[in-house]
Please model this.
Amino acid sequence: MPSTIDEIRTALETRLTAARDAQDVRSAQIEYLGKKGTVTALLKQISGVAEDQRRQFGEQVNALKQWAAQAIEQRLSNLSFTTRRYDIDFSLPGQLMPAGKKHILTQVEEEVESVFLSMGFDIEEGPEIEQEYYNFEALNIPADHPARDMQDTFYLAPGMLLRTHTSPIQVRTMKRENPPIRMIATGRCYRRDAVDASHTPVFTQVEGLVIDKDITFADLKGVLQEFVRGVFGSSTNVKLLPSFFPFVEPGAETAISCPICGGKGCPTCKNSGWIEMGGSGMVHQNVLQEVGYDPSIYQGFAFGWGIERIAMIKYGIRDIRMFYDNDLDFLGQF
Ligand SMILES: [Zn+2]
Model:
């Protein structure tokens, strides 16, 4: 009998190893452990074995039954693991997950910030809902100035408005800190402009301010030069043209050599080789006095440019409305 038990065990082992799928294993299970199975038949024989051998035989057959049940389960789970692996077709194309990315304006904002951070500037922030005082009065824009006209500004309540530029952040920074100051601020600004290819009621500015002893117009030009070279490329030049802004004296419109044609002349620069980028100038004495700085000791310069304009020139975008249309095909290009 022991030899029969060993033979059954070996035969089942061979059978299970050869099984190619769960079906094979199931039929072996029936063959060995089913009602008419080989092992079941042995179990039935136990009672007929001579009394002195019955106990030993019974233990051997029960051990065989337990082993067979375990071996079958083990083989089934191995097979289902293997089968599951073969169920995956690695040649099928994967499902593309659309990858989110930063908005083009955010990207340009961060690029501008990194250029100024490399020059040792701090980044400041300020509220979009601003007091009239910080937006206008403290910046030497008197009550009768055209910029305070209802047509240009969104007033929310008497004395409260949506900031029309990032310049109030200058005032807040100067009132909070003592010179030297080297800061930029980026953020949304609001004006009651009709929407067209170059105007939107919401736009983004980058504001710069430097206050220290012995700051000159040459420092302004040097910093702007570094700025535009960092953003538009190392061969870009800066030109300052006389202009007027109430909070600077002297004031300048800043033009850069056209990064598209390299200054030779093209439709973007209207064949002039130069593109106007935004205002700048030396901080007006009235502004310095307003924040409590002594203009005989401290001077400074400031500038305010549009992030949209920078992005339009850098990427050849013709219409400012594209930034706000939320067209994913457009935004996905950057
Ligand atoms: Zn050009």
Observations:
- The longest strand covers residues 202-212.
